[in-house]
Amino acid sequence: MGGFPVMADQSLPETKSAPLPDRKQAANMGGAPDMGATRHARPDPARRALRIGASIVAALIGVLLLAWLVLYITKGRFLKHLFETYASQAVGRPVKVAGDFQFYFDFIDLQFRAGGMTVANPSWAKRPYFFSARLIDSRIATIPFIFGTHRVNSLLLDGGDVDLEWDAGDKHNTWTFGNPDKPGKRLELPVIRTAAVTGTTLHYRDPVMLLAADIAFQTIRAADTRFASDVRFTGTGTLRALPFTLAGSLLSPNQTVTGGRNRLELHARSRDTWLDVAGTLPAATRIEGADLALKVHGADLARLFDFLGVAVPDTRAYHFTSHLMKEDGNWKFTRLRGSFGNSDLAGAMTIARPKDRLGITADLASNAVDIIDVGPFVGYDPKRLEKEGGKGAVTRVAGVPRILPDAPLRLDAVQGFDAHVTYKVRTIRAPHFPVSNVRLTLDLDHGKLSLSPLTMDVSGGHLASDILIDTRRQPVFTDYDIRLAPTPMGALLKGFGVSESGTAGVIKARMKMSGRGDTVHRSLATANGRIAVILPKGTLWTRNVQLAELDVGTYLTKLLGHKLKKPVELNCGLIAFTVRDGIAAADPILLDTTKNVIAGRGGFSFRDESLDLAIRARAKTFSLFSAQSPIGVDGHFAAPGLKIISPQLLTRAGVGIGLGVIASPLAAVLAFVDPGDAKSAACGPVLAGADAAAQRTTRGKPRKDVGNGSPKP
Predict the structure, then answer these.
(1) DSSP letter at 638?
(2) pLDDT tens string 55-114
């Protein structure tokens, strides 16, 4: 048997299979994960959302780019009818585009172009269209517009016509769109950086302010190399029935986007009022933040304030310069300087309209004011004062001279605004009274005007006033409270020819009255109250007392003896009047000196400004030549008269002459003998300013020789 033997029991050793490790074990062992198991894992949600969002954004960008491209290629002309429909709904009025229409984005900024565009007016307006133009081509800043800022980088307007109107009730206007019942808003124009305007007219109407204006605009090439264009404008109009004209230009710089500013020049005239404004604007239609210089001059400052519907007193010719700016809706006049008449004025003023009511605040000062320039502030005619000086304050009514001003308050203007004004005057140039350190606070609140306090230094004394004028009450109610602190009498009367030498007395006074009427004359002609002038103890010229007494013997003796200015003692004095319905009656007139007692009766009238007083002096000691007759004061405020030779004196002279003829020359002297029996006055009631009924002699007896409140002497 040949060959290899078969080994049935011999074979390869048997191998036992080990189990595969799971993912966690594999990871711990550092081995590779099973790819089959990984193929069935769930994807990350955040990554999937990110991929979806990116796809959506990419799609939107694509759509926007496609829309931008379509608009850019077609210029958006196919949107014309859609624009008309949407715009008409938005403004609540028909909007039409008769010619070419373009609406597209030139890169980012919106390009809008429309030919023959019209925007209708409300039915109440006088003109059919709020806006119309042959062509409007504008480039609007898109991104600022999204965030609420309306900015036009460039504007081309040809054949434009803009109508800005308020209705008769001052409640609605043509530029407030949407609901026709919505109250009208203030006009706020978008910021326009550069503009080219040709053949364009702006119309403005405000029935309440009685203002109408028509302004034409035209752009020409600027001569200044720093500026690209010059928008020139001219216009005419009326304000409160007074015509005015205006002209000016607006120079737009070449590179406004990089911060250039527009230069404005404006010249306006209304009869005898001239106004010039020059400066720079941050944008062609933006006054806020402007840097402007104002010059204004004219014949009467009141005519200038008519533009605001504000009542100020008439003035003589004026001229002022000021820095002008608009800030937070307020017009601010700073570095204000100038003059009116022969008086200077400086300070600052702000004009605002909070809650749709005009308000003025001002802080003003004058170094020197001429008394003639004060006259118009209380109602005197400035033209007459300019021509005649102080005599211009006197007028004639039925041949009778009048001096109290009779110019009425402009109630409509006074009630149309509010004001708070402080005013200081260092010196008032006056021929008779040295006045200085004037301080005035004026407040006007819905027709209620107060001048409180009004203070000044007068001839070494101090005068303080509180005056209230209430135009809300009809007739107008005026309350006067004027107080003069003790003032040296010699200094006070120096301007009237009285020497200060020998006069050491003082005067203090108060006038407390109220009346009704819209002029100074009418309010005083209906006034009720009291006027009192108190003279405490002091010295007076002997001449003044003796002339009032007409003590001829004593007067001549002192004259020949060169002792005319020797003072006499004034114990006390009171010159007081009770005023009833414009008629003032002595209550009392009583002066007590060491040598005599002076008493007066009668009074005066604010109604016709007449005077009717009788003043009589009685000696305390015996005097041989004494007339013992009252001096009469008659005439009017503007032309008083003095009756030294009274009927009583003539009667006594006749008696004396008769006695001289019948008896002897010595007997004639007896008619002029003064026994010197005048009773001294108790000074307590006098210095208290008490009425006539309270006056007493030094022995406590009632006085019967003083005025008792009756207007008849």
Answers:
(1) T
(2) 787 777 787 788 788 888 889 999 999 999 999 999 999 999 999 999 998 888 899 999
Q: Which residue has the tokens 């110019």?
A: 407
pLDDT tens for each residue of 551-589? 444 443 443 344 445 667 788 989 899 999 999 999 998
Please say whether the beta carbons of 639 and 401 come within 8 A: yes
Distance CA 615, CA 177 (A): 77
- Whether omega for the bond prior to residue 453 falls within 30 degrees of 0, making it cis, is yes
- CA nearest neighbour of 307 among 216, 242, 233, 214: 242
Peptide bond into 588 cis (omega under 30): yes
Task: Report the sign of the C-alpha dihedral through residues 552, 553, 555, 559, in that order.
Answer: positive
All residues at 6 or more sequence positions from 407 whose CB lies less than 8 Å from its CB, including other chains: 314, 379, 380, 381, 519
User: How much is the average pLDDT of 608-629?
Assistant: 72
Enclosing H/E stretch for 688: none
Q: What is the pLDDT of residue 553?
A: 44
Instruction: Kindly report whether the global pTM for this prediction surpasses the value 0.85.
Output: no
Do residues 139 and 164 lie in contact, with contact meaning Cβ atoms separated by under 8 Å?
no
Degrees (nearest 5) of the Cα angle 467, 471, 475? Answer: 105
| CA dihedral sign of residues 406, 311, 211, 201 | positive
Please count the other Cβ atoms lying within 10 Å of the Cβ belonging to residue 577: 24
Phi–psi pair at 246, nearest 5 degrees = -145, 155
623 Ramachandran zone, left/alpha/beta (phi>0; psi -120 to 50): beta
- Count of positions (residues) in the chain: 713
Strand 611-619 to strand 596-605: parallel, antiparallel, or no bridges (unpaired)?
Answer: antiparallel
